[in-house]
Structures are given as C-alpha cells and as structure tokens.
Design goal:
With about 160 residues, the chain is an alpha/beta fold. It has a single domain, classed as 3-Layer(aba) Sandwich (Rossmann fold). The chain contains 6 helices and 5 strands; from the N terminus they run βαβαβαβαβαα. It has a 5-stranded parallel β-sheet, sandwiched between helices.
Length: about 160
C-alpha cells in the first residue's frame, strides 16, 4: 500500500489545500492528512475543529478518488510523523518561490534523518496559488467575503468562530 503524508496546520483548510489533497490521491492508496498541533502559531481553530473540518471536506474526495483519507494530529517532527503512519512519501504544496526556499531546506534535513522517505512538491492550480490560511482569516476578520477561498462549510465555521 502506498501511503502519503500531507502535513499542515489547516487553520482553516482552504480550496488550495483541497486541490493538493485531490491531486495527491492519484499518487497514493492512503493519504494521511497530518494536522500539526503547533501551539506557536496560535491557531484560530482548536485541533479538534481542524481535524473535523479536514474529515468533512475530504469525505467527498475519498469517495470520488477511491483513496483512503485520514486526519492524523501530530506534534512531533514531520519525519517521525511519517514513520508513525508508515508514509514513504511526504506531499508538500507550493504557492511561490518563497515557499520553495523553506521547503528545500526542510527536505534536506528530512533526508538526512531518513533517506527512505521521499518528498514531492505539488503546485496548487493557478486559481488557488495566492490562497493562504493566514490571509483567509484576516479577510474574514475584517468582514470580507472568503467564499472564493474556502468551501461554504468552512466559511460558515469561520463566521461562527469570529462572531464568538
């Protein structure tokens, strides 16, 4: 079984993330969405809500592609998470050159720790390349329309969360 790991904070999950998830399904039999706990980033949504959003948004993708998709919270090193879930492939989404510079360094470090685990970069489709969770949250906080960047369910979750 080919197992891939797509890690991120997913705070919240965006159409860009879902694009990468859909395309990654063509490469693996099982796709583990590693939901990073990352307390340093101070996420808007608690872990449980981010996992629930991933599960809800990925159900249709799994049904359509036939790929098993599971959400897996993690707080350890990415390479250790990959080992924990049996992944031999780490999938990373890229939006711009700035992303590549950081990811390039990370791949080098991960390869030094475990050369049996490969990393694959996928570019988000052009219409999704500018989408960043941080910007989506800022637009939503300031009363802007985020419907071009997230699904209706995620938009509703953002609206509820920011109203609290």
């Amino acid at each position: 079984m080919r197992i891939g790991l797509y890690p991120g904070t997913f705070d919240p999950v965006t159409l860009g993330h879902l694009d990468i998830i859909t395309r990654a399904c063509a490469m693996v039999d099982r796709l583990v969405i590693g939901v990073a706990i990352n307390r340093d980033k101070g996420p808007l949504f608690p872990l449980e809500e981010r996992v629930a959003m991933i599960e809800a948004e990925c159900a249709a993708i799994a049904a359509k592609t036939g790929t098993e998709i599971v959400a897996h919270p993690f707080e350890n090193l990415l390479i250790d998470c990959a080992r924990d879930v049996g992944a031999k492939l780490i999938i990373r989404g890229l939006r711009a050159v700035a992303d590549f510079e950081y990811e390039f360094q990370m791949v080098g470090m991960n390869r030094a720790m475990d050369s049996s685990i490969e990393t694959v970069f996928l570019m988000a489709e052009a219409r999704h390349q500018a989408i960043a969770s941080k910007l989506v949250k800022e637009i939503a906080r300031l009363g802007g329309d985020v419907s071009k960047f997230v699904t209706p369910a995620v938009k509703d979750a953002l609206t509820r969360k920011l109203a609290d």
